[in-house]
Write a structure and sequence with these properties.
Length: 214
């Protein structure tokens, strides 16, 4: 059975502010882009899908089972790359990713193989054993994307993964995302970069608390 992420009448409040209002949408394998103005709720929607936050109302289902009951089941097959991440400055890129791989239950040899392949794909291979403290903003962005793709997740949530990237890095990342979307549900907030938009199975606009086809 194909895993589907299904939101039914999902709402999210922060105090008195209603950010999402009765959102109902089902996500299937393939790339879905989330667009809309800044502050409209794109990142909030992504955090809900990634189980980083809980909805104020409504239900989120993974493969037919409601969260929070299915939360741990979903997290085992989840890759999440938020915009802001506190990275361990003292670790090398390799040490950081292998630590996360261990938490995901990947064996060290397989995790290292995947890390090296992904590092090559995003242009971080030469810096694999360098400390994160020396990484630029673009390098950090690519490292966060890399860890999200580790372990071939079934649900991948990416919050503007191409921000701060140069043209070459943007193309590399777009190719990786497109490849991942062949077998996984990929949700990505974006400003419709050309390298990714043409490959999307759906483009949804988040605005006014609602989610609608763009």
């Amino acid at each position: 059975m194909t895993a589907i992420l299904d939101l039914k009448s999902v709402s999210k409040r922060y105090g008195k502010k209603l950010v999402l209002d009765g959102v109902s949408v089902a996500f299937q394998p393939g790339l879905t882009l989330l667009t809309g103005p800044s502050g409209a709720g794109k990142s909030t929607l992504l955090r809900l899908c990634a189980t980083a936050e809980r909805p104020s109302g409504g239900d989120i289902l993974w493969a037919g089972q409601k969260l929070p009951g299915a939360r741990e089941r979903l997290r085992r097959v989840l890759g999440y790359a938020p915009q802001a991440v506190d990275l361990p400055e003292e670790l090398t890129a390799r040490e950081f990713v292998l630590h996360l791989a261990a938490l995901k239950g990947l064996k060290t040899g397989e995790a290292d193989r995947q890390f090296l392949a992904l590092a090559e794909a995003v242009g971080l291979h030469a810096d694999a054993n360098n400390r994160i403290s020396g990484f630029s903003g673009g390098m950090r962005r690519r490292l966060v994307l890399l860890q999200a793709l580790l372990g071939q997740p079934q649900l991948i949530c990416l919050d503007e993964p191409t921000a701060e990237l140069d043209t070459d890095s943007r193309q590399r990342v777009a190719a990786l995302i497109t490849r991942a979307a062949q077998s996984a549900i990929v949700l990505m907030t974006t400003h419709l970069e050309d390298g990714v938009a043409t490959q999307a199975r759906a483009v949804l606009r988040v605005d006014g608390g609602r989610v609608q086809p763009a």
